[in-house]
Specification:
122 residues; alpha/beta; 2,3-Dihydroxybiphenyl 1,2-Dioxygenase, domain 1; seven-stranded mixed β-sheet; 2 helices; globular
Length: 122
């Protein structure tokens, strides 16, 4: 199973303070909209999403269809296929995604209560 590009999505209290902190660690902005409360930062192959007021907890994020540079991959497993595979394996992956193609997402929770977002943008 290939679940796409990996990043950590951080629920932050002050996006400007968090951005400044991670810039000090060598991260640069690669996407997002700070005015809307979200930024994507990158340092080499490492990606961090900063989200103010969007999520309750930090979470692991995987993006089917994207590589680590947010380039669309030619061959990937669609989020709906992944959701069904994980549901069939006994994980609670929520209600089946209604759309048949395109962007969609679902969340599962690991045994320690950590949310894992599977978020397809293509």
């Amino acid at each position: 199973m290939t679940i796409g590009a990996f990043s950590i999505s951080l629920a932050v209290k002050d996006i400007e303070a968090s951005k400044s902190f991670y810039e000090t660690l060598g991260f640069t902005t690669m996407g997002g909209d700070q005015g809307q409360g979200w930024l994507i930062l990158k340092n080499g192959r490492n990606i961090i999403g900063l989200f103010q007021g969007m999520f309750e907890k930090n979470m692991l994020t995987f993006n089917p269809g994207w590589d680590q540079d947010a380039n669309t991959m030619d061959d990937f497993e669609d989020v709906r296929v992944l959701q069904k595979r994980l549901s069939d394996a006994g994980l609670d992956a929520g209600m089946p995604i209604e759309s048949e193609t395109g962007p969609a997402s679902f969340t599962i929770t690991d045994p320690d209560g950590n949310p894992v977002l599977i978020d397809q943008h293509v």
